[in-house]
């Protein structure tokens, strides 16, 4: 399947490999994850608005090794806001994205709220 283009709140999000299975036990794909994020956004975003997110990424599916991403990727769209935050314990400054949920799907990510 070719890339899938989503329009969310007037912004364009390109979903590469939309048929890539991320949750093999249930056969759920990257495209399914994007659809889910769009469905839950009205209920979830009020709790996330203005708070930085860390992405827990699983590029090879949920059953494979994942990693945490705190820094904003260069490929994130310009319209996606970000904030630099000093972390205690010598971890330095991390640039977090205030990522709309639908933009998490192209990165095969589950967003985690930072307090």
Describe this structure in words.
It is built from one helix and nine strands, in the order E-E-E-E-H-E-E-E-E-E. The radius of gyration is 14 Å and the shape is globular. The chain has one helix at residues 30-48; strands spanning 4-8, 11-15, 21-23, 28-29, 53-57, 67-69, 82-87, 92-97, 109-113. The strands form four sheets. Strands 6-5-9 form a three-stranded antiparallel β-sheet, with no helix packed on it. The protein has a two-stranded antiparallel ribbon with strand order 1-2. It has 115 residues and is of the alpha+beta class. 21% of the residues are buried. It is 17% helix and 35% strand.
Which terms summarize this structure?
1 helix; single chain; alpha+beta
Q: What would you say about this model in short?
A:
This protein has 115 residues and is an alpha+beta fold. It has one helix at residues 30-48, and strands spanning 4-8, 11-15, 21-23, 28-29, 53-57, 67-69, 82-87, 92-97, 109-113. It contains one helix and nine strands.
């Amino acid at each position: 399947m070719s890339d899938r283009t989503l329009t969310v709140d007037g912004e364009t999000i390109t979903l590469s490999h939309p048929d890539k299975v991320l949750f093999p036990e249930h056969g759920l794909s990257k495209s399914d994850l994007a659809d889910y994020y769009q469905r839950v956004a009205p209920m979830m975003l009020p709790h996330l608005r203005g708070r930085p997110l860390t992405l827990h990424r699983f590029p090879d599916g949920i059953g494979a090794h994942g990693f945490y991403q705190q820094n904003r990727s260069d490929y994130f769209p310009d319209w996606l806001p970000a904030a630099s935050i000093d972390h205690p314990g010598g971890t330095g400054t991390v640039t977090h994205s205030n990522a709309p949920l639908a933009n998490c799907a192209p990165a095969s990510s589950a967003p985690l709220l930072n307090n």
